[in-house]
Amino acid sequence: MNPIKVAVHGLGNIGKGVIDCLLSARDFDCLGVVRRASSLGSQAFSLRGLPEYASVDALMEARGKPDVAVICGPSRNVPADVRHYLEKGINTVDSFDIHSQIPQLVADLDQAAKASGRTSITAAGWDPGTDSVLRALFEAMTPVGTTFTNFGRGRSMGHSVAARSIAGVENACSITIPVGGGKHSRLVYVLPAAGASFADIKQRIAADPYFSNDPLDVREVGSQQELDSVADNSHGVLMERIGASGSTSNQRLSFDMRIDNPALTAQVLVSCARATTRLAPGCHTLIDVPPVALLAGDRITHIARLV
């Protein structure tokens, strides 16, 4: 069977993790990395020997057309980036993580994917993503009940990227702190740019959709070294549901994991890249994807092994 040809779009923490996962799998051929032209030539070690290009057109001219592009940029860029690849007849996967916008994004990308006859899987990280599947399974097991998803304590990549995009911010790290009952607070460490007003930065962060709905504590740090001391990649989730199966109440379900955030997100993206080659055209989320489609190898073999 021919390997699945992949282009990686972006070389941040997730992009680096995606490269690692692709090189660790036997059924993928990574054609290269698409990056901003201004970034070409930097981070050679992170490229792991892969070629880099300023556009997907340049990649295709040099290496041929990929089957799927793994989108590793900020969530706010995902809609445009995904459409760009779909229009070129390339499947896509992304880890878009603005929960409230996912239903509309799926509807919009579904039209774009079907128009090009390609497949897109969006919101394909661990939350949204694999946690979404577990929430669905929990509800299938106990249709009446309540699920609480408690994140952290840990560094949120999406919130950190959002904080870094605020005017006047040189660098930032956002820590998610669970307060129970599915509620969270945000602790944001900010390294202001030279001459920037920290008070203005705090106001801008508080008004941003990523932060406006949760308790927020924004703290100033004085150096990159000080920021590095709190910016590790650890994260996790504790998901709990209490509900009823039929008329039998007090069914208690739980799932707990402690992870390296970008590494797990990257692995889910790569598994979903595989699944795009097995699904009908359109836009899907992980609750739409048969689990067996995520796994390398033969379906019947997995049934014999896992069922």
From TrEMBL:
The keyword Oxidoreductase applies. NADP(+) binds at residues 35-37, 72-75, 95-97, 124-128. Transmembrane segments: none annotated. It is an enzyme of class 1 (oxidoreductase). Keywords: Amino-acid biosynthesis, Diaminopimelate biosynthesis, Lysine biosynthesis, NADP, Nucleotide-binding, Oxidoreductase. One of its GO terms (molecular function) is diaminopimelate dehydrogenase activity. Its EC number is 1.4.1.16. NCBIfam families: DAP-DH. Belongs to the diaminopimelate dehydrogenase family. This is Meso-diaminopimelate D-dehydrogenase.
